[in-house]
Design brief:
By secondary structure, the chain is α+β, with helices and mostly antiparallel strands. The chain contains 7 helices and 18 strands. It comes from Deinococcus puniceus.
Length: about 325
Amino acid sequence: MTDVLVIGAGVAGASVAYFLALAGATVTVLDAGLHAASTVPAALLNPVRGQSGAVDAGAVEGMALTWELVQTLVGGGYDVPHGKTGVLRPVPDARTRARFEKRLPAELAHTWLTPAESPVPLSPGWDAILHLPEGGWLDGAAFTRALLAASGARVVLGQARKWDATSVELHGGTRLEGKAVVWCGGSVGASWAGHPATHRAGTMLLLSRPVSPLPISFGAYLSPAAPSGKALGGVLGATFEEPSLTFNAGPLPLGSLDWLLKKGDALADMSGVQVTGRWSGSRLSGLRVGQTQQGWWQLTGLGSKGFLLGPLRARELAGQVVG
């Protein structure tokens, strides 16, 4: 009998499977094939979040763990495009800088630069630039696939219809038994399950080339991107649509396209760069981690921090499940 059944094969489920396997568990992952948010072409490892400069508890440790996993996976022969290049966070005025400074933990490596000191040219109008040398970007889809493969977990394709502390029933009637069940459904899975939650749609424009050799982020972000097997390109992305009560990653409204392009121009010179495609996903907000009253476990609601905090929370959860 399988020790642990993990519902969901996005970054949360793949991370849980990986750390459960390291702890000696036999794992089966149930994959419905719609883990949209985890297929992001360029996820930033950026612990200083949003325009408020908030730094989550565990963000510095989480960033270090994700980079450690990337190196382990690459060393094991997995293709995980990434760049530990650092991240630039320009701020528009002294008030914003003071807000950021107030929230920067002592253990986070950082320096403040003037626009003239920036390692890459930025658009005019920025007051100062926060340089995070240990940040960077990675290909979310490749990282997630590699984690799942490295876990050695058995993967069963199908959508979970219902579950309890020790079993899962799939659409079609197949029933799987285990010693524990971990639900790692994201925006899509929460909508299927009818869980009340907040969903936020995000969009990336795929660019013909990187605008900058390292990510630049404020309001939106520009980053290099190199999907597995493809040449280096770039992305311009943001999570900016109104929150929804259900999964929603529909067409990008023209007004949103215009907003996103203007945000990109405000960061750096985008002249000569062509838009070659679009990626959209929907993230689930409101972190839930631990054992439920019904006896099954969960790791969900990572929002835009799936690659920053997902592996760290998964390692903690796996220890509780097998402990």
